[in-house]
Amino acid sequence: MYIEWIKNSVMMQRGVGADRDPVTHHLTEEIQKKFHYTIGPYSDPVMTIKPGDRVIVDTRDAFEGAIKSETDKPSELLTLPYLNPQNGPIMIEGAEKGDVVAVYIEKMVPRGDDPHGICCLIPQFGALTGTEYTATLNDSLPEMVKRVRLDGEHIYWSKRHTLPYRPHIGTLSVSPEIDSINALTPDNHGGNMDVPDIGPGSITYLPVRSPGARLFIGDAHACQGDGEVCGTAVEYASTTTIKVDLIKNWKIDWPRMENAHAIMGIGSARPLEDAGRIAYRELIRWMVSDFGFDQWDAYMLLSQCGKVRLGNFVDPKYTMGAMISKDYLQE
Amino acid sequence: MYIEWIKNSVMMQRGVGADRDPVTHHLTEEIQKKFHYTIGPYSDPVMTIKPGDRVIVDTRDAFEGAIKSETDKPSELLTLPYLNPQNGPIMIEGAEKGDVVAVYIEKMVPRGDDPHGICCLIPQFGALTGTEYTATLNDSLPEMVKRVRLDGEHIYWSKRHTLPYRPHIGTLSVSPEIDSINALTPDNHGGNMDVPDIGPGSITYLPVRSPGARLFIGDAHACQGDGEVCGTAVEYASTTTIKVDLIKNWKIDWPRMENAHAIMGIGSARPLEDAGRIAYRELIRWMVSDFGFDQWDAYMLLSQCGKVRLGNFVDPKYTMGAMISKDYLQE
Amino acid sequence: MYIEWIKNSVMMQRGVGADRDPVTHHLTEEIQKKFHYTIGPYSDPVMTIKPGDRVIVDTRDAFEGAIKSETDKPSELLTLPYLNPQNGPIMIEGAEKGDVVAVYIEKMVPRGDDPHGICCLIPQFGALTGTEYTATLNDSLPEMVKRVRLDGEHIYWSKRHTLPYRPHIGTLSVSPEIDSINALTPDNHGGNMDVPDIGPGSITYLPVRSPGARLFIGDAHACQGDGEVCGTAVEYASTTTIKVDLIKNWKIDWPRMENAHAIMGIGSARPLEDAGRIAYRELIRWMVSDFGFDQWDAYMLLSQCGKVRLGNFVDPKYTMGAMISKDYLQE
Amino acid sequence: MYIEWIKNSVMMQRGVGADRDPVTHHLTEEIQKKFHYTIGPYSDPVMTIKPGDRVIVDTRDAFEGAIKSETDKPSELLTLPYLNPQNGPIMIEGAEKGDVVAVYIEKMVPRGDDPHGICCLIPQFGALTGTEYTATLNDSLPEMVKRVRLDGEHIYWSKRHTLPYRPHIGTLSVSPEIDSINALTPDNHGGNMDVPDIGPGSITYLPVRSPGARLFIGDAHACQGDGEVCGTAVEYASTTTIKVDLIKNWKIDWPRMENAHAIMGIGSARPLEDAGRIAYRELIRWMVSDFGFDQWDAYMLLSQCGKVRLGNFVDPKYTMGAMISKDYLQE
């Protein structure tokens, strides 16, 4: 059933549940009841699954549906920190500190009768404006809302522009050990990474730091450019199908990603160069531990063939991924 | 009883409890029982006080006493994220989101029969080394521990050097609204700011974001240089006496500080310039709202007489304070 | 003779010399005589060309051939600031402040009887080490040299790895108005941008700031990963053929690039987010002035479809390019 | 004639001209003729002096007198990069790469019949606004000019505020080896550091990188706050008296400063934390080489008693100084 690369993925090679017949769960709005705005160990689980299981998740858009039309004012309708609602936490049986949770995204489809996405300019938010942290005395940029129709193929942006539907999950996390981190911030637990590669056909690996791992998911994007420069993607409500597995005793420090073509280390930090440093170091560590590389060879080789993805440079921490093509991993 | 400037401080002018006869509480180790490693709304209060009350707090050192001798290895004895133990949370009656808690530090004395402090070099921590965020492939610096005797006057650093006892509180916080942030990180809730001015004779103002404010305090330093460059100060166990008051309906975004000589805005962020931007903007806002300044006049005047304190540039976020002498605030 | 997109490029649409029959010049080592280590207005021109002319440039590798074998020590053979030798300055007739020089790279071939490239680890240089600026007390990483054979198709990296030949120019500049900037640093004059897209089939636009523009070129890379993480690419001696044109009265602030598929704004700064901000703002300005976009529409659209290239995050300033596909530029 | 500390300064202990009877030169406007806007090896010397000589320098204000009244518009009167005019270059006999030039500032007095200073808000310049590098889409802050009378005691800022006259030199440099760097940018050659401690009673040490050192001086400030937050100090025309000496074979990487009370390392970089890292590392190196410290002891001690001065965080590079009191240097 799985295509070739997945058979050889870390998830399928080392996942506790790789050989199980997966049970499929549906995390509906009714089951979720209360969405979460922080990722941490203090919230009540919505379900417990076994490694290898599949979950169909009904996600809300990042504004939780509050922005409905192009005349809406984000500053009047959005209330910090109650943004970017997350589904979960989903408990994974047997997950303990020192393990890794693998999340394979199988499918993402728009949800609801009137599938649409929202992109907006929020005051003091975005890469090309003063913000809460890059504090300036300038007036804010104008508020602005764009509401666009979409389907499983396209986003109907404007008369002039149609964008391809390139869905991905903006915020994917397991719980930190003791912190509870707002859903806007990425860090070594995952969080609001906004990496466009984390879509259907990708496996994300997240370091477990608390019992049961406590998986959170949300912030579906119908598409997003590198860096999410204005601060928002095409934010939409999705039905997202994931397969979740557990790898025991795999010590990783930061999220990693794998797809048909490449493996990726993911760093989140400010300034942006630190996100890049983390990403490349995590990638080197992976190449050394699993693919027979000497550390310095990996460092010099990546200087020739490493690829970088800027996730976002608008969130409280910025996210960068560093990749190497699987072509270079064969021995 | 209070010296002149305190009578005119925001705390005494606007504090709900300024005219009350304060009750003195003692937050002993027995009452505290469990120390906290995150600042958030999810922990059980250790006591409730009324605005204007005094609390004598028995703080532990940042390593919770785990480092005892100069042959100890920090990497073997310290376990992230269980560092920098905090007393609290202390609930302040009547405190609500939109208010401000004022913490006047009256006194800090060394605690215990054998008063001493610990300074150490921790691998991948400090300003002049690669770290978890500024990720490098370099070997770590050597681990090192310095254990020094101290009393209420001096720190006996070495045969060559005696340092003055200049105590202050490294970590002072109220709870974020929904996040729970590890005790190593400063942000707009206060946290691990490491500002040496936050010692006896200072009043720190913290923006309330949750019911009861939830005051946390810890990380006493017998002295500290600007920036805490090696990553640690003279960390010691203290008995710290604070007077806590509540100012209703004072909207501030970041911590502020006041002492006999100056007022200060405090920013915590990376990169460091953003901490400075936040600090100066917060100070300008204070000058405009309370001291009759035009925004641009304040901006230009601070360019001539503003003073900056680098708290730390070693924590997950860096802290900077921006000050103006009270001489310039008189009309 | 030119393929379709070039006919429609800014260079061919607005270049003063677009319709001229180009003269071909050859900038040999003999003509160049002295290579340059700074980009500025103080050096003697090596030749003067007319807009539209072609120049075949014999470039030296970034180490000027000093590193010859894998047992060489870069720290013994390289002397700062005499690194990254540049050909030029080439004067372009009629170029004045306020104009733009267009550099179309036609071809890059390895030079010499023994075509090879050098990659090395230089102490205190690279993204994953302390450096002169990110000053640490750690020991340096080991020095290391990799010398690899190459031809116009491949780079023979190791028994395990063959890399595709993806040549580009690391350092391309016109002179600043009064500064003379070392060849290791990129800025708004171009300089050491290390953007892999600036290879055959690309047109780079550089803002003229001094009479004659004073074009410098050097630092050929046989291939390079995003960010040039270890500090060096496959540095080689090339014969590079460029066609140079002049666009009068085109006010741009930072370098721009155009190829068959996309247009790009290029920013160079620290921290890295500032390079990204510059790049995206320059791109927005281009979209607004030449492609009929409203500023806010461009900002929001790029948040969905902008692509980012990390040039380097190892030089004294870091370089990032922000692109949009030409598909989105059609009206 | 000299006060005690100067006798023991590096300048007087090791300066080639310490025992000479100094000749006094006067660098008038007539002798200077042409002021310089870059610091480099390509300009014609205005005078040659012997180590130990005194020079009285007539400096122009940073706007070269172009801003005359409070109704002037900086954006109309100032032309980048022709800002911050510098006197010099002054050649120091015998100075060679690897030496150090010492500049003792003896006196700074206002110049002219109508002593005054100018402070202004310049579009896209300052710490609390988007800039050329921190590129935003926000509208610029309002332009604004403040012209203030001053004398050798006070600056008459406004009816409400009189500031003390605390003069210092904003821009002090020797030439880089091959670069020529605009007068707005600080770096390891000195440049536009804007460190308020570099005033009368201070000795600044600058690493010589070209024959004769080529000393430049300008940008007198009648006073300045930490960070120069709005982008400008009280900029004025001064008569500044300096004594210049030469220390042979003293290898320093970045500028250093000494006064009666402290020694300081000075770093200039972005992000700001890197300026701090450089400053502290340079200070540690000084403590180790000249004051008998072990490197790790120095690092840990500075964590307790180091003091930081933020020079500016508005220039193309930011400047920070790290100090230790001379009390701690005695053995």
From TrEMBL, chains A, B, C, D:
GO terms for molecular function: hydrolase activity, acting on carbon-nitrogen (but not peptide) bonds, in linear amides. It comes from the Bacteria. This is Acetamidase/formamidase.
